[in-house]
Amino acid sequence: MTEQVILQIAGVNKRFGGLQALTDVGIKIMKGQIYGLIGPNGAGKTTFFNVITGLYQPDTGTFELAGKPYSPSAPHEVAKAGIARTFQNIRLFGEMTALENVMVGRHVRSRQGVFGAIFRHKAAREEEAAIRQRAQELLDFVGIGKFASRTSKFLSYGDQRRLEIARALATDPQLLALDEPAAGMNATEKLALRDLLTKIKEQGRTVLLIEHDVKMMMSLCDRMMVLEYGKPIAEGLPAEIQSNQAVIDAYLGGSH
Ligand SMILES: Nc1ncnc2c1ncn2[C@@H]1O[C@H](COP(=O)(O)OP(=O)(O)OP(=O)(O)O)[C@@H](O)[C@H]1O
Which residue intervals define the domain ABC transporter in the entry (predicted)? Predict the structure, then answer.
């Protein structure tokens, strides 16, 4: 079986004033992988994510998604190219129901778009029904189907995180990028999240993940990259990362 490269990025540099936040960072993610990005606080993980997803403009870098160059010049361009992301701080439409939040994600891909939905042409109505059904399926898939009509701000923290993932999946992305999805979760929620990410991988999806819970990352990721002071210091299989002396010194300490 030939493996397909989903994301290939090379030579990313990003400076904030006097701070070199990223130095020659590259990444290569194969289809179907869960790829982990770890590193101490301030290492540049979120900055790299923001560059990949069009929120920050890099000073240099080349970007390819599924073999095609893409421009990370704006978040909507990146979404159109096929990367969906979630944020460290949950960004849902709090006053909308869970189902509506996912439907908004799906409209990115719909032919009629949001305007068609508003003007309610027949074709738009039919498409709307299909979007509604798909949104419900996604809520079921992430395990919160029974909360479809609940206002999203009233969902538990863990369920809001699941909802964010469902909304990202609604765009049917080539790459799902998750920024600290386990942040603030308790142990039970983390285990459930791990199961969900495994299920997403089993569907053949490709996931890029930032996470501080190293134990979870080691058991979940196919490959990992470690950043320190904006530079990649190691890349490889979790077992290789775990035994890499530079990583142990920089990040894991002696305890892992
Ligand atoms: N918009 C910005 N303007 C100026 N400096 C920034 C900006 N965003 C990030 N930085 C700086 O870039 C460096 C990398 O930050 P970044 O948030 O990417 O690290 P991180 O690895 O994601 O950290 P954490 O694990 O704490 O989220 C830090 O020194 C940070 O202060």
Answer: 7-254
**For residues 225 and 232, is the Cβ–Cβ distance under 8 A?**
yes
Q: What is the mean pLDDT of the chain?
A: 89
168 backbone dihedrals φ, ψ, rounded to 5°: -65, -40
How does pLDDT run across 196-222, given as a tens digit for each residue? 999 999 999 999 999 988 888 999 999
Separation CA 188–CA 196 (nearest Å): 12
Q: Give the integer Cα–Cα distance in Å for 19 and 43.
A: 12
What ligand 1 atom has the least distance to the C-alpha of 44?
A: 18
Which of 205, 221, 209, 215 lies closest to 177, judged by CA? 209
Beta bridge partners of 38: 226
Which 3 state secondary structure label does DSSP give 174? coil
Output the CA 44–ligand 1 centroid distance in Å. Answer: 5
Ligand 1 proximity of 38 Cβ (cutoff 6 Å):
no
Instruction: Tell me how long the chain is.
Output: 256
Mutation to probe ligand 1, out of 12, 19, 49, 228 (largest number of atoms < 8 A from CB): 19
Beta carbon of 50 within 6 Å of any ligand 1 atom: no
Question: Domain coordinates of the chain in residue numbers?
Answer: 1-82+174-256, 92-172
Residue 242 CA to residue 236 CA, distance in Å, equals: 10
Residue 177's DSSP bridge partners are 85, 208
ipTM of the complex: 0.95
15 lines ligand 1 (CB under 6 A): no
Q: Which two tokens stand for residue 149?
A: 């009509």
Residues of the chain below pLDDT 50? 254-256
